[in-house]
């Protein structure tokens, strides 16, 4: 204490005090300000130099007679007491009181909750039907890999509003969660809305899915063992119904899509066959390809006959007169055959008069009269061979080209129709083979003891949380106080 304040307990120095009976020392006159000296005509007095103060030596002072240590201990003790009272008061209000209230509530008031759980996995079985391709097998493998999606779907459904609505159709959830005798903090309270019921339902169910094992766990809590078991068993049935509906919908959609393809292919085939029938009616030929083949065979046959007649005519001209009847008849036959060949080639689309003239070799010029005499015979012979005069009917090559287009469309329509029929049968087979179901390997059971609430654990958690909050508050308070000070 003497180090902090060395002048405490300092002994009075009697040497500096005047002796008793001695005359008092006159005080030194204080000099007047400069402004007053200018105003008065009196002479300025000299300022007296102040006397030097005596220098005190610390070592020369004696220790005080009273206990300095006791004084030092007495001064901060009041602050310590105030600080201790404040800390204990805050600890009681923020930690002890909440923990005591939680202990009383969880130990004496809270209602017991019973647990019923079940575990399941969504499985898919695909049997490859006869005639299944590699693509369909790969699609089936992808569908099996999508089983995780089905598991997530079921887990999410169990905590959704749809599950609550489905449960409400068969069970009275409000009566189960608002039974008489249940404490007010645990029971279903608030307004009678579906949102309130769904929020409370999500606090009473725990559904989780393990990605590593592919298994799902569902836990349901209620205030009686029978209620917990009834709710869990109903959830199992609803999960199976949900998966069956989704699987059936997928199968129905696949078959429906295949059937729509078959319907479009059938309509396309009908249109193609209708176009072919209309073409046959218009061109008056059942098969243009066969007609064209017959016409070509006839042209080749006539060419052979023309070559024989020309050879025979050449041999007769060597020893007979050009005006002989036999030669004239042979020339007429050659002219008629040449005209017939020309008409057929024109009908096919390749023939013309120059070609016919080249075939005759200029022999028509030598027998114009014979040609004129046999023109009617040639004209009458042309219809006999099935050919028509130029301009009376379309060219056979154009008819054949149109026929090939129509027939090609018909063939494509038939192949597409066969393909869609095969796809429809395959879709039906796969729909019958694919089976997605909920495999519940742990069935719900009635609880024999209450597992919730966990009284000791919950009270300990409240104590630790309140203690952490109190500690942080105290640290913040002291840091602010030190900063302000």
UniProtKB/TrEMBL annotation:
The keyword Coiled coil appears for this protein: yes
Positions of region (Disordered): 12-48
Transmembrane segments: 85-108, 456-480
InterPro entries per UniProt: Bact_polysacc_biosynth/exp (IPR050445)
Parts forming coiled coils: 255-282
Biased composition (Low complexity): 18-31
Keyword annotations of the record: Coiled coil, Membrane, Transmembrane, Transmembrane helix
Domain of life: Bacteria
PANTHER family assigned to the protein according to its UniProt record, in alphabetical order: FERRIC ENTEROBACTIN TRANSPORT PROTEIN FEPE, TYROSINE-PROTEIN KINASE
This protein's name: Capsular polysaccharide transport system permease protein
Lineage summary: Bacteria, Pseudomonadati, Pseudomonadota, Alphaproteobacteria, Hyphomicrobiales
């Amino acid at each position: 204490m003497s180090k902090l304040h060395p002048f405490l307990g300092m002994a009075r120095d009697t040497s500096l005090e005047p002796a008793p009976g001695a005359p008092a020392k006159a005080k030194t006159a204080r000099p007047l300000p400069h402004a007053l000296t200018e105003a008065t005509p009196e002479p300025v007095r000299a300022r007296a130099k102040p006397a030097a103060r005596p220098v005190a030596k610390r070592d020369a002072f004696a220790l005080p007679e009273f206990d300095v240590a006791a004084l030092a201990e007495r001064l901060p003790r009041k602050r310590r007491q105030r600080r201790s009272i404040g800390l204990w008061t805050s600890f009681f209000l923020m930690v002890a009181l909440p923990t005591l209230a939680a202990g009383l509530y969880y130990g004496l008031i809270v209602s017991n909750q019973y647990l019923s759980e079940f575990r399941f996995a969504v499985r898919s079985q695909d049997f490859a039907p006869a005639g299944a391709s590699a693509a369909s097998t790969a699609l089936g493998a992808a569908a099996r890999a999508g089983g995780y999606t089905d598991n997530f779907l079921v887990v999410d459904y169990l905590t959704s509003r749809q599950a609550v609505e489905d449960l409400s159709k068969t069970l009275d959830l409000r009566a189960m969660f608002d039974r008489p005798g249940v404490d007010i903090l645990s029971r279903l309270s608030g307004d009678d809305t579906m949102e309130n019921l769904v929020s409370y339902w999500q606090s009473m169910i725990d559904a989780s899915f393990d990605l590593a094992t592919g298994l799902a766990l569902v836990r349901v809590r209620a205030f009686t063992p029978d209620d917990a078991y009834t709710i869990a068993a109903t959830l199992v049935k609803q999960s199976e119904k949900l998966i069956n509906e989704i699987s059936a919908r997928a199968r129905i959609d696949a078959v429906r899509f295949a059937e729509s393809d078959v319907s479009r292919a059938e309509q396309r085939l009908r249109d193609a066959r209708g176009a072919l029938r209309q073409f046959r009616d218009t061109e008056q030929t059942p098969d243009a390809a066969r007609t064209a083949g017959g016409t070509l065979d006839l042209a080749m046959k006539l060419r052979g006959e023309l070559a024989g007649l020309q050879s025979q005519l050449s041999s007769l001209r060597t020893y007979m007169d050009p005006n002989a009847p036999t030669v004239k008849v042979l020339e007429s036959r050659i002219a008629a055959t040449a005209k017939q060949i020309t008409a057929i080639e024109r009908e096919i689309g390749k023939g013309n008069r120059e070609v016919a003239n080249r075939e005759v070799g200029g022999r028509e010029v030598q027998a114009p009269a014979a040609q004129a005499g046999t023109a009617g015979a040639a004209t009458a012979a042309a219809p006999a061979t099935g050919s028509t005069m130029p301009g009376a009917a379309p060219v056979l090559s154009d008819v054949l080209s149109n026929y090939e287009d129509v027939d090609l469309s018909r063939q494509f329509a038939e192949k597409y129709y066969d393909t869609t029929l095969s796809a429809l049968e395959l879709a039906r087979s796969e729909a019958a083979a694919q089976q997605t179901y909920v495999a519940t390997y742990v069935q719900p059971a009635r609880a024999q003891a209450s597992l919730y609430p966990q009284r000791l654990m919950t009270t300990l958690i409240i104590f630790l949380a309140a203690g952490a909050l109190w500690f942080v508050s105290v640290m913040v308070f002291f840091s602010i106080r030190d900063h302000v000070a």
